Amino acid sequence: MNPPGNGAVPAVSPGGSAFPATLGSVATVRGGAASPFRIEGAPALIAVAHGSRDPRSAATMRAVVARIAEQRPDLDVRPAFLDLSTPSVDQVIDAVAADGHSHAVVVPLLLGNAFHARVDLPGMLDAARDRHPQLRLTQAEVLGPDPHLIIALRDRIAAAMAAGTDFRPAAVSEASTGWLRRTAGPRWGIAVAAVGSTSAVANTRTGDVARLLTAMTGWDTEICFATTQPTVDRAFARLRSRGAERILVAPWFLAPGLLTDRLRDALPLVRHAETIGAHPLLAEVALDRYSTAALPLELTA
Predict the structure, then answer these.
(1) Please, which residues have CB within 8 angstroms of residue 8's CB and are 6 or more apart in sequence?
(2) Rg of the Cα trace of the chain?
(3) DSSP state of 21
(4) Fold for domain 21-144+280-299?
(5) Per CATH, domain 147-272 is 3.40.50.1400
(6) Cα separation of 274 and 160, whole Å?
(7) CATH 3.40.50.1400: which residues of the chain?
(8) Quick one: angle between helices 232-241 and 258-266, nearest 10?
(9) pLDDT digits over 231-266, tens only?
(10) Which one of 66, 84, 94, 241 has the fewest CB atoms closer than 10 angstroms to its CB?
(11) 10 Å Cβ neighbour count for 262?
């Protein structure tokens, strides 16, 4: 992937991350039609999202997976959910095995390496290996606070800042935000809002998101959480005490849902940015996790 630099968004290549052409030739896709893109023997990519009772969440994550598939038409890319949404991880693995794949890379579309990534998903994969001994399953790393996702977060903030001004949000989103730093105007404070954890260590690690955002943009930021301390109200107070004239809540969430609604309800008169959603850099990071997990195994096979 392209390294971030000076706040400019890296170019997103249409083909996504490179995958060695030596893995095989054109494959036959389901239904019998020959695809000019699909690489025979390339591991399937199972993109696993959290799942939610809120239909907006599943719809957003399906859009994310569609973006991943657009960037890598040579791969068999399928969405799955850990809970509350369909299809389940088990259903997708069973389908991948039934379609004749010998290897699948499971990419957790998760921002943190918490219980779901460390316990739930590995347990599901162990059970699936018992059902399908012919199918190799490799779990990739979580998305985490990747610098490219910080850029995506910055883009969502820039679009929210531009709303209601003479600048068109569409022209700001996913583009350079240098004018926001150069143009005289109100001093913004950014409350970066994450889910929160019972682990103080995990919450401290999540705080790196706000620190990285400040380092990238110069904006004054505070981390806060939807389920634990410090709350978004506390972040608001801290930013105000440091002289912020306007506060913006930036959700460190992939998709909208009940918790992002809770944040909006806590500060209804404050501007809120959109979730990261189907940003092209999210797809890039997911494909990077896929390639890192798949490449060594394929080269030694």
Answers:
(1) 176, 178
(2) 20
(3) G
(4) Rossmann fold (3.40.50)
(5) yes
(6) 8
(7) 21-144+280-299, 147-272
(8) 40
(9) 999 999 999 999 999 999 999 999 999 999 999 999
(10) 241
(11) 14
